[in-house]
């Protein structure tokens, strides 16, 4: 019998008004920016255009009191990006929140009510 918990996974989106301030895709983008120190490299890793990644970063930066991503323009040292201390905290809290929701007993109860094979 398949593990029903493996099929049921919450996708958390934090909205402010009609704007998604943070969700799974934006959190992944933040992680990749931190890893690569670059919005463009993070975008390439996600197979996303730089423009799309920049718009997501801009949305996140505008939703929070302080920017989550700090950027440096090009030049002799080249450009770059990194998460601010607030960005690191927001990402950490979001991942903790995801984990807490995934471990809630209600999720296991909902999973138990799933069909083994969904009907078309």
CATH superfamily caption = Winged helix-like DNA-binding domain superfamily/Winged helix DNA-binding domain
Q: What percent of the residues sit in helical stretches (DSSP H or I)?
A: 40-55%
Strand portion:
5-15%
CA radius of gyration = 18 Å
The appropriate CATH architecture is Orthogonal Bundle
Main β-sheet, in a few words?
2 strands, antiparallel
Structural class: alpha+beta
Number of strands: 4
Reading off the top of the CATH hierarchy, the class is best stated as Mainly Alpha
Structure report:
The protein has 120 residues and is of the alpha+beta class. It has one domain: Orthogonal Bundle (Arc Repressor Mutant, subunit A), CATH 1.10.10. It contains 6 helices and 4 strands, in the order H-E-E-H-H-H-E-E-H-H. The chain has helices at residues 4-7, 24-36, 39-45, 50-63, 85-102, 105-112, and strands spanning 14-16, 19-22, 69-72, 80-83. The strands form 2 sheets. The chain has a two-stranded antiparallel ribbon with strand order 1-2. Strands 3-4 form a two-stranded antiparallel sheet. Helix 2 (24-36) crosses helix 3 (39-45) and helix 3 packs across helix 4. The two termini are 20 Å apart. The mean pLDDT is 91.
């Amino acid at each position: 019998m398949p593990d029903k918990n493996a099929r049921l996974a919450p996708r958390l989106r934090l909205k402010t008004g009609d704007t998604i301030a943070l969700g799974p895709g934006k959190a992944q983008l933040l992680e990749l920016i931190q890893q690569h120190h670059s919005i463009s490299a993070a975008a390439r890793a996600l197979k996303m255009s730089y423009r799309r990644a920049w718009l997501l970063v801009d949305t996140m930066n505008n939703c929070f009191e302080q920017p989550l991503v700090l950027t440096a323009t090009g030049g002799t040292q080249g450009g770059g990006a990194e998460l601010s201390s607030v960005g690191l905290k927001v990402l950490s809290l979001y991942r903790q929140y995801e984990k807490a929701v995934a471990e809630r007993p209600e999720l296991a109860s909902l999973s138990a009510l799933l069909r083994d094979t969904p009907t078309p």
